[in-house]
Design goal:
The protein is of the alpha+beta class. The protein contains eight helices and three strands; from the N terminus they run ααααααββααβ. The protein has a three-stranded antiparallel beta sheet.
């Protein structure tokens, strides 16, 4: 994924009500339950069907590091889909999303103003429409650049133009040198 995509995913995962399975056999059993067949799990993970069956029966307990990473990623992607959907829906309709970032933020402005990017630490609550746009774009497979653009538009409206109270002719906000970015629902 990406910096923004991973941040959005981490925010949604904070809404989980139960921890995901921790052991490899438990994770395999969960994937078999979700995908319905050992063959489908084997194709998803890039292993043989027999390997999946051996994990399900507890004959193998410790996967190779690369298989362990794929297994964790696939289980996390599928874990508690209804809780995940409710958290996204709540953020997109009522709560909005909070962005906490430390980055070099600059903007394009009319001639005669200083538009040099400078390092800022910003924690700002974006309205629900920006949360909806971020989640819609993420589910449509948008890349980091597009998610960044949506977040920058929200930052422009809420932070730089104070929700429309400060009339400014900022054209574009841009993030560079992002030290970290966190989202919270």
């Amino acid at each position: 994924m990406s910096l923004f995509g991973d941040g959005l995913e981490a925010a949604v995962q904070k809404a989980f009500t139960r921890p995901a399975p921790k052991t490899a056999p438990a994770r395999m059993r969960y994937l078999v339950k979700r995908l319905k067949t050992t063959k489908a799990v084997a194709q998803t993970l890039g292993v043989s069907q027999r390997t999946v069956e051996r994990y399900v029966k507890n004959q193998i307990r410790t996967p190779r590091p690369e298989l362990a990473a794929r297994l964790e990623r696939e289980v996390t992607r599928r874990w508690q889909p209804q809780v995940r959907a409710r958290a996204r829906q709540r953020a997109a309709t009522t709560d909005g999303i909070v962005i906490d970032t430390r980055a070099r933020i600059g903007y394009t402005a009319p001639i005669g103003t200083t538009d040099d990017a400078r390092l800022r630490h910003v924690t700002i609550a974006l309205p629900p429409q920006y949360a909806a746009r971020l989640f819609d774009a993420q589910q449509a497979g948008a890349g980091d650049r597009q998610l960044q653009r949506i977040a920058a538009e929200g930052l422009k409206e809420v932070y730089f133009q104070d929700g429309g109270r400060r009339a400014g002719s900022l054209e574009e906000i841009r993030f560079t040198d992002i030290e970290y970015i966190e989202f919270e629902l």
